[in-house]
Amino acid sequence: MAEADPGIFSAMSRVPEIAVAGASELDVHLREADRPFVVRGLVKDWPLVEAGQRSGREARDYIVRRRRDVPFTVSVGAPESGGRLFYDEAMAMNFRMARGKLPEVFAQIDAAEGRDDAPPIYLASIDMFEFFSGLHEENHVDLGDRRCIASIWMGTRTRIAAHNDFPDNLACVAVGKRRFTLFPREQFRNLYLGPVDNTPAGRAVSMVDFHRPDFDKHPRFREALKHAQVAELDAGDALYIPSMWWHHVEGLSPFNVLVNYWWRETPRWMGQPQDALNHAMMAIRDLPEDEKRHWRDMFDYYVFENDESVVAHIPEKGRSVLSPLTAESASRIRSFLLRQLSR
């Protein structure tokens, strides 16, 4: 992997660290926190962590014994990419997607281990329940009544461009070392985001190369760096990433495994804000300026302000979706939107 400019990371603030005595104390911190924090050694007793401490190959053997006999999706980059899974000069992906059984994928990692010309190999966001039997039961964090998506990320040395996710995220390093570089939500203008529809993994990513930032091309990135926080995690450590915080992720070891948990505090029947933004780009962005001003006022009125004056003149039983949303009214809106979009 190409070496990063050490000055970029050494000048950053460190993500604060906390200590927790158990699941209930962790729960309190997760409910109260609005900024990232690190918990050292949170998962150090996992069997997977212990296997990885012995060697990457032992960790792979441990994982393989618990896999289901199904194809896995894997990203394979070019050796010259330095592990950066990103765009090429034509804005196509600089990696290819393949499918294979996990023993076959790990055999490729075994064969390439230690080679300077080894391609980056990355298995991203693999559902631990769907693709494994017993792995989650033996290696998990007690997150109480949260309904989490539990995923495992496995691969060689990689760099994943800064992006954000809608759910809250607890990321646990199980094997190897990782570096996370985080930015508050509002820094999106200074991260030079790429396309929203042509993305490496479903979310718009920063176009800045964090290892070699081009400040002539991306001058506002200097401002983003003033707000950046960095966390370098060893196996057993965990990092909480609040909803919508931007994070650049690097796997620093020859073999790396991360287990993460996503959850959202809002009801699952609510829509995805990104879908609304995408539709607004299609329906509103290219309108004449005076019409856009009107629709901005309408969004403020119905969505962002949404005070009692919006519905005070409508009988309560007749307010329909203007009333506070429920699962039923959200379903009516979804059905209405589908009908409108299919016209």
UniProtKB/TrEMBL annotation:
Could you list the residue ranges that cross the membrane?
none
Question: Domain JmjC: where?
Answer: 115-278
Q: What is this protein called?
A: Cupin-like domain-containing protein
Provide an example Pfam family for this protein: Cupin_8
